[in-house]
Specification:
The complex is a heterodimer of chains A (170) and B (207). Chain A has 170 residues and is α+β, with helices and mostly antiparallel strands. Chain A contains 1 helix and 4 strands, in the order H-E-E-E-E. Chain A has one helix spanning 4-56, and strands at residues 105-110, 113-123, 138-152, 155-166. Chain A has a 4-stranded antiparallel sheet, covered by helices on one side. Chain A is elongated. Chain B has one domain (9-205). In chain B, 28% of the residues lie in helices and 36% in strands. Chain B contains 2 helices and 7 strands; from the N terminus they run αβββββαββ. The radius of gyration of chain B is 25 Å and the shape is elongated. Classes of the chains: A alpha+beta (170), B alpha+beta (207). The interface between A and B is large, with 41 and 37 residues.
């Protein structure tokens, strides 16, 4: 049995060391994941901002694209159920008013990969800023962005960004 | 000769080597995180400055400037704007240009000085800001239609008539760390890279 004690002690040291190594590896993997997530989330924000900034450059409503504003505001604005692009506006480049982005979706490719982007536009209550079924002078755009590299368990994590626009603040 | 003792020495040696290797991995990872954070902070500073300028492209207190864009190249842009919002409506000429000048305080041979220059309408220099934050690439794409796919940008440099029709810009900046990180003693190392990119829809280009 001479030397067996040393072998057993060394084996015990190996087990302890293996546990430390596993823990260190987990830390490195977590750090790397956080680093990548940070970089990707920065891109997610940029992609969503692109859409929001672009929508802000458009007219508030299809009925305000003409030379004169409608007589009855907000009664003459597009009906809440009809928000979205007109039949002639088939692509993002054709959009001419804010709510044309309602139900729009696309894939945006950047240096960081491809992102799925989609948006909803709806009227909001002037007091609570919650969605409303009535015409108001406030509209909200909600932009969603997801990427296969940003996962929440097995599903893609969905990021959403909102912007409220007021007809009179244009 | 005690076989058990020799075996334990061998195993102990392996453990020591593994500890050394683990220590190097953790240290390299820690360096990478620090450099990555620094690079990202630098990217954020540049993006703040650039976003501020680009959004105000063509701005004046009464209407827009004429012209708005005067130089539209792949890594250089020049435009007019009343950037200081002066009441006399005086317009400044702002230029962003990735020069060929190396960054003096960096060990990275790829980074170059990003220059922001502001001149008055007569061309006299108002301010010049050399940015030595490790910029290695500046790419500017121009679009004459909203929502155009990134690859379908206008061919640079743009002509005057093309510049008048620009609606959106896509700016991409790549930054690298000043120092390399090494994964192991044998490898040649690499620079930590961070990319900032954004599509701009300056309100004054809409008209």
């Amino acid at each position: 049995m001479v030397g067996i004690t040393e072998v057993i002690e060394t084996m015990a040291a190996m087990v302890i060391f293996s546990l430390i190594l596993l823990s260190a590896n987990r830390m490195i993997i977590r750090n790397t994941q956080m680093q990548i997530t940070g970089e990707m989330e920065q891109e997610v924000i940029a992609v969503a901002q692109d859409v929001i900034e672009e929508s802000r450059t458009k007219e508030f409503d299809a009925k305000t694209t003409g030379a004169l504003p409608p007589t009855n505001i907000p009664g003459d604005f597009t009906s809440p159920s009809a928000l979205g692009p007109e039949s002639s506006e088939t692509s993002r480049g054709d959009f001419n008013d804010f709510d044309d982005y309602n139900n729009w979706k696309d894939f945006v490719t950047t240096e960081h990969g491809t992102f799925k982007v989609w948006a909803h536009v709806f009227y909001v209550d002037p007091v609570t800023y919650d969605s409303t079924g009535n015409r108001t002078t406030f509209k909200k755009i909600r932009v969603f962005v997801s990427s296969k590299y940003l996962n929440k368990s097995s599903d893609s994590k969905k990021y959403n960004f909102e912007f409220i626009r007021n007809y009179y603040a244009d | 000769m005690n076989v058990g003792l020799i075996t334990s020495y061998v195993i102990a040696g392996i453990i020591l080597l593994a500890i050394l290797s683990m220590n190097m991995s953790v240290s390299s990872n820690s360096n990478e995180i620090t450099l990555s954070q620094i690079t990202r902070e630098r990217a954020a500073s540049i993006s703040d400055m650039m976003s501020n300028d680009i959004q105000k492209m063509g701005y004046n207190r009464k209407g827009t400037t004429d012209p708005i864009l005067t130089v539209a190249e792949g890594n250089k842009i020049q435009f007019h704007s009343n950037i200081d919002n002066s009441p006399d409506n005086s317009v400044e000429i702002i230029t962003w240009d990735l020069t060929n000048t190396d960054v003096s305080n960096s060990k990275n041979p790829n980074d170059r000085v990003l220059m922001r220059t502001v001149r008055d309408a007569s061309g006299s220099l108002i301010s010049q800001t050399p940015i030595k934050s490790g910029v290695t690439k500046l790419r500017i794409n121009y679009y004459d239609k909203y929502g155009t796919a990134r690859k379908d940008s206008l061919k640079t440099p743009l002509t005057s008539s093309e510049m008048a029709n620009v609606k959106q810009l896509y700016i991409s900046i790549e930054l690298q760390s000043h120092e390399k990180i090494y994964q192991s003693s044998g490898n040649s190392g690499r620079y930590v890279t961070s990319v900032w990119e954004k599509r701009f829809s300056p309100p004054n280009l809409e008209f």
